Hints:
Layout (H helix, E strand, L loop, with lengths): L5 H7 E10 L7 E14 L5 E14 L13 E14 L4 E13 L10 E12 L10 E10 L8 E9 L4 E7 L1 E7 L4 E22 L2 E20 L4 E18 L5 E4 L6 E10 L1
Antiparallel strand pairs: 1-2, 1-15, 2-3, 3-4, 4-5, 5-6, 6-7, 7-8, 8-9, 9-10, 10-11, 11-12, 12-13, 13-14, 13-15
Amino acid sequence: MIICQHVNAQMTDLARVEYSFIPQTRSEDQYTRLRALFNYPIALKNKSYLVFGAEYNRVILNIEEDYPFETSSLNTIHIIDFNVGYTFKTSENWRWGIKFNPRIASTLETTITNEDIFYNGGIFAIHDRSDDTSLKHPYRLILGVTYNATTGLPFPLPFISYTREINEHWSYNAGVPKSSIKYNFNPKNVVLAFAGLDGYFANLQQGIHVNGKKADNISLSVVVGGLGYQYFLTKHLIAYTYAGYTFRLNNRLRDSNRDEVFSLNEINAFYLRTGIKFKR
């Protein structure tokens, strides 16, 4: 369910290329993710925009531990999102946004089936006074609800993001699914502390038989916290590196009802994410 950065990236990033890595010091298993996305906004009347985009995640599981089943079909997981969004202003400081993003999340060992496709979306209210020079502490508030078929929950989930500038150096973002506090040394160098959620859910096209049960899906959920550094190459082009630790890691095989069949390695470990992004 790629949760930690997905909504924010769709709303602010025009392009991003990223590498994530969770090595294991007490296990032979490793997790690597390669990610690329783009969004193309089309300006309409009255400061409204139609946004088309796509995102690709390639998850590489280097599974070397001994498990009671064949693991070769778990080596690569593909997650492909197609995004359509519409945003419009209702007043000077309020804007609404709607997005719909069908997703393919699968091992893709054969042709795409209905089980590989998931439908996600959300609606957001954005109160943006981040550029208001009349305020001592400019801020931006985003409230929304999202529906993500890969979570297995039959109801919308909240999205909250409140960003506030404390002074010329300090700012923070409080919300769900991530929060952070930033310190700006100067316009080009930023350090931050962060906490958030990450993970995915995908279909296993071939299925795996484990102890008399069949696993049809694989999921990973991670709670991670750590420190990050951002370097502004230009006003809109940013290179970044985040390093931290996974405080909760659940990596599981699930049946067609999404009930747990088998737990893979769940040892907490070091977390690294680095990349470059172009923001509007």
